[in-house]
Amino acid sequence: MRTREVVIAVSVAAMVVLLAYAIEVGGLGPIAPQRIRDLAATYLINTYNPWNITLSSLSLEAVTAIVWDYRGIDTFFETSVLFVAIVGVTSLLRGFREKTGLSSAGLSEIVKTSTKVLAPLILVAGVAIALHGHLTPGGGFQGGSFIAVLFILLSVTFSLDYAISYGISSRKLLALRSGGLIGILVTSLALLIASLILGVNSYIFQNMAREGAPLSMPSWFLDRPTGGTLIWFNTFEALAVAAGISLAFLVLSLREEEVEEALGQVEWYE
Asked: Is 166:160 a contact under the CB 8 Å cutoff?
């Protein structure tokens, strides 16, 4: 072990010990009481509360209920930050066209065979995490990230040519990402639009009925709770995240010939 690694390890350990000591003696100020705060208790009690639907999301997963219902507008703007970044990446080389025949043959046959076994498992896991986000830990972002990892894994293992040969392109990924964002927008406005047609009160991002706003999203499908808007938010977010991250990877992986064509065949000087 090199001296530098020892110094780093000792420094990290010392920082942890000093921080723990500072907390113990009150050096960081008063610590929150060791009990669930009122707001958190309200969320946990009412996340799935069919006896008081005006305070409930009818979701068995409290985190998803908080993210997409109780503070849905915050999540919308947080999600927008990611997609604005993706738009920035794609706009740098807008108009490019993917070319085949520029990639290598990919990795070894052992890696390719292992990837073929893992690929369907990753896809199923990603879809399950997204669709069950209102029931179990997970959600649209996590599920979409799983699916994006599948595209990246295939592109690295088999080459970008392999992914493109299956019809994957920046335009299709952009369309899927836009479709996911439109789905999120439509879901957030669904009850508001319905209330305008029916002449009753409603709110943006409304899920279940609230005081003075009687409309609710369907909360059950057969014998399974859906959490109303939550299953739709997770589905559309998974689509947008999977397509958006895959699109960003595709753009960042452009080969020299594709970049030159996108930039108008510019001349490079030493």
From this structure: no
At 34, list the tokens.
Answer: 């060791």
Q: pTM surpassing 0.85?
A: no
In contact, 59 and 47? CB cutoff 8 Å: yes
Question: Cα–Cα distance between 211 and 247 in angstroms, integer?
Answer: 42
Alpha carbon 149 to its chain's center = 12
Helix, strand, coil percentages in the chain from 3-state DSSP, rounded to 5: 65, 0, 35
The kind and range of the H/E element at 79 are: helix 72-92
DSSP 265: S
The pLDDT of residue 123: 92
Q: What is the DSSP string of 188-227?
A: HHHHHHHHHHHT----TT--S-BTTB------EETTEE-T
